[in-house]
Amino acid sequence: MRFDIITVLPGLLESPFAHSILQRAQKKGLSEIVVHNLRDYSLNKHKNVDDYPFGGGSGMVMSIEPFAACIEKLKGEREYDEVIFMTPDGETLNQSIANHLSTKKNIIILCGHYKGIDQRIRDIFVTREISIGDYVLSGGELPAAVLVDAIVRLIPGVLSDETSALSDSFQGDLLDAPVYTRPAEWRGIKVPDILISGNKAKIEEWRYEQSLERTRQRRPDLLK
Ligand code: ADE
């Protein structure tokens, strides 16, 4: 699966994909993440990518031409399933959106800045607008990294234990049960006996009950 991320701050996206699972997925050839500097597509020698808003008001608006040039170049090279714009007024990202997007082949992600992007980019090129939550960040780069992480870990073969993505919180309707590792006792605090009993059936039952209780307490809305 290929992601093309268009941004004015490519440096912000150098590190998130260079570690752990996301790095491994790229090394295994299961995902490819290409970051494009929007300024390379600027029409003027100052490499501007924004301009004053028509009608006045504070803040700059990202111009249509650099985005159009970059998107059209990419579309000339391959077909894209989605052009996603990261924005706080998009639909809120959840597991079901991530699951759906993990079945796609090529995705372009646009990162906004300043006051926003020219509405015509959204009208003409964007197929989907996604928010990562009801708060405003300085730009779309961190949201883009969150989206790519949520998708890539679902691609078959990316996680070494394939079932582990399936048992994640939110993948079913329940949150995860608590987990423990050695030592079995630390400062007098013991791991629940059942987990060291070796009784697989009882352990599964305990985990299910814990999941249910945690969901009831923290996210009762998931049980409806
Ligand atoms: N850009 C700024 N804030 C954002 C958010 N919460 N989600 C997606 N993109 C954003």
TrEMBL record:
Report the GO terms under cellular component: cytosol
Keywords for this protein? Cytoplasm, Methyltransferase, S-adenosyl-L-methionine, Transferase, tRNA processing
Identify the residues that bind S-adenosyl-L-methionine. Answer: G112, I132, G133, D134, Y135, V136, L137
Q: What would be an example GO MF term here?
A: tRNA (guanine(37)-N1)-methyltransferase activity
Which residue numbers delimit the tRNA methyltransferase TRMD/TRM10-type domain? 1-224
An example of a Pfam family matching this protein is: tRNA_m1G_MT
Major place of residence: cytoplasm
Transmembrane stretches in the record are none
Query: What processes does the entry annotate via GO biological process terms?
Result: tRNA N1-guanine methylation
Catalyzed reaction equations: guanosine(37) in tRNA + S-adenosyl-L-methionine = N(1)-methylguanosine(37) in tRNA + S-adenosyl-L-homocysteine + H(+)
Where does this polypeptide localize? Cytoplasm
User: Does Ligase show up as a keyword for this record?
Assistant: no
Q: Which InterPro entries match?
A: Alpha/beta_knot_MTases (IPR029028), tRNA_m1G_MeTrfase_C_sf (IPR023148), tRNA_m1G_MeTrfase_TrmD (IPR002649), tRNA_m1G_MTases_N (IPR029026), tRNA_MeTrfase_TRMD/TRM10 (IPR016009)
Supply the enzyme class, top level: transferase
Q: What EC number is given for this enzyme?
A: 2.1.1.228
What functional role does this protein have?
Specifically methylates guanosine-37 in various tRNAs.
Q: Which HAMAP family match?
A: TrmD
The protein's assembly and partners: Homodimer.
Family membership: Belongs to the RNA methyltransferase TrmD family.
Identify this protein by name.
tRNA (guanine-N(1)-)-methyltransferase
Species name: Arcticibacter tournemirensis
Q: What is the gene name?
A: trmD
